Amino acid sequence: MLTEIGRGRLTVNLGAIIANWRLLGAMHPGQTAAAVMKADAYGLGAAAIGPALRDAGCRHFFVAHRQEGVALRQAIGPGPMIAVLNGFAPDDSDLVPVLNSLPDVNAWSGMGREAILHLDTGMARLGLDAAEQMILAGAPSLRQGIVLRFVMTHLCCADEPAHPLNEAQQERFAAACAPYPDVPRSLANSSGLFLGAGYATALARPGAALYGLNPTPGQPNPMQPVVTLEAPILQIRQVRTGESVGYGAAWTATRPSCIATVAAGYADGYLRALSGRGWAILAGRRVPLVGRVSMDLLTFDATDGPEPAPGEMITLMGKGVAPDDLGHVAGTIGYEMLTSLGARYDRAWVA
Ligand SMILES: *Cc1c(COP(=O)(O)O)cnc(C)c1O
């Protein structure tokens, strides 16, 4: 009889997210931490994480797109601020636009609505540039009828504490905020919170660290791990010395080998760049990924240790396989490992 083996399982630890949010909020006295929830809370499910953070006391949320904001509002209900980093045209939504240019300011002036003013201090993506900042500072009437909730900027190099741009941006931000003495400020992302007291503002905007990624690369991770990704073994096969495994015959056994074929692949966000580089945890042991990552299948060398059985779960991300570390060997960052997580996993959010 053929027993069907299920699919991968993604478990998100809400208690760990809340603990991380509290730790980040306590980094600087008098400062509040928002929760950055763009891209469906870094791939982990804004509809479940939003209400959990709201219940824990989080009053400020950031998303990238207006549609993300509308969905998050439905999930958390009225009350907390939901700001849209990419901005949007005036509408009747209960969302706060981030104003990224003088035309944005112009579009929202006279509306009597709350907004966040984004001043660019070096990222050169969004936000009023230096010339626009001068114009707005010299003509307060341009922002008449806009209730400024915060002025914000975004650090480019916060994950590199020694980078000179950190201090430069901090100084530029202080100067750029001078025309808005009564408006609270928002500066630090996850890593920015760890740069020292000079980076404290009224509202920090951590994202990655909430979800367990390390805001202090190269140092021990102060955050609690959040994500566990497991997938079932579909088959065990014995491979003889000299036989190859997978597409391109990219890996050849140099000894009689036990290969575990697992039900996940690049279509599930297990990046193909991990071919020949990844690893997983099987019954507490580290097993190397061998051969190429396929669309729906992965092959691991389970030769060392007791032979696993089909149906047994293998840990692709979690204890012993931090998303940051996998991202590093894949030539990317933990952020992308999380936002790439596919739609085919059974998802569970545990308290
Ligand atoms: C994504 C983002 C953040 C959060 O950054 P993390 O590094 O994930 O903490 C904060 N502010 C802005 C403007 C962002 O785009």
Plain-language structure description:
The strands form 5 sheets. The chain has a 7-stranded parallel sheet with strand order 3-4-5-6-7-8-9. The longest helix is centred in the middle third of the chain and has 14 residues, at 164-177. Helix 1 crosses helix 3 (46-56) and helix 3 crosses helix 4. The chain has helices spanning 14-25, 38-42, 46-56, 66-76, 102-108, 130-138, 164-177, 323-329, 334-339; strands at 9-13, 32-33, 35-36, 60-63, 81-84, 96-99, 113-118, 146-152, 185-186, 203-204, 227-239, 244-245, 251-252, 257-262, 279-282, 285-288, 298-301, 313-317, 346-350. It is α/β, with parallel strands linked by helices and 351 residues long. The structure holds pyridoxal-5'-phosphate. The site of pyridoxal-5'-phosphate has 11 residues, from loops.
Q: Which radius of gyration do the C-alpha atoms yield? A: 23 Å
CATH superfamily of the largest domain: Alanine racemase
Q: How confident is the prediction overall: mean pLDDT?
A: 97
With helices defined by DSSP (H or I, 4 residues minimum), what is the helix count? Answer: 9
Strand element count: 19
Largest sheet: 7 strands, parallel
The geometry reads as elongated
Query: Level of helix content?
Result: 10-25%
Set out the fold topology.
Blueprint: E1 9-13, H1 14-25, E2 32-33, E3 35-36, H2 38-42, H3 46-56, E4 60-63, H4 66-76, E5 81-84, E6 96-99, H5 102-108, E7 113-118, H6 130-138, E8 146-152, H7 164-177, E9 185-186, E10 203-204, E11 227-239, E12 244-245, E13 251-252, E14 257-262, E15 279-282, E16 285-288, E17 298-301, E18 313-317, H8 323-329, H9 334-339, E19 346-350
Parallel strand pairs: 1-19, 2-10, 3-4, 4-5, 5-6, 6-7, 7-8, 8-9
Antiparallel strand pairs: 1-11, 11-14, 11-18, 12-13, 14-17, 15-16
Helix pairs in contact: 1-3, 3-4
The structure holds pyridoxal-5'-phosphate.
Pyridoxal-5'-phosphate binds at residues 36, 38, 85, 154, 189-190, 205-209.
